[in-house]
Write a structure and sequence with these properties.
The protein starts with a helix and ends with a helix. Helices cover about 20% and strands about 30% of the residues. By secondary structure, the chain is an alpha/beta fold. The chain has 2 domains: about 5-50, no CATH class; about 50-100, no CATH class. The radius of gyration is 15 Å and the shape is elongated. It has 3 helices and 8 strands, in the order αββαββββββα.
Length: about 100
């Protein structure tokens, strides 16, 4: 896991040590920051941004909010899904290399 200083260098963010929250000025940096640190708490324009990490496995996508979702064709992003159907968080996909190498869309 990267240190707070390393993450701040990657994205345009300020870290509030008291609250443990990253303040992000650019909305596009929210996803980038969430990919760098899956457990990061992110604030954009005064609001905490909820993110949900979806990881593809053999049968379904497992979510960081402890659910599973089956996508019949393609990936969530290929089906224009942007938010978790369970917690409402911004959806961030993770596809393990083994699944990508098999050529699954």
């Amino acid at each position: 896991m990267k240190t707070d200083e390393e993450i701040i260098a990657i994205v345009d963010a300020e870290y509030d040590e008291v609250s443990g929250v990253y303040d992000v000025a650019d909305l596009s940096m929210v996803i980038r920051l969430a990919r760098e640190d899956e457990r990061a708490q992110i604030r954009y324009e005064g609001q905490i941004v909820r993110v949900c990490h979806w990881t593809e496995n053999e049968e379904a996508w497992s979510t960081s909010c402890d659910n599973y979702f089956i996508v019949l064709e393609g990936s969530p992003s290929q089906n224009e899904m942007r938010f978790c159907a369970y917690c409402g968080g911004e959806l961030i996909e993770h596809r393990p290399a083994a699944i990508r190498e098999r050529g699954k869309p």
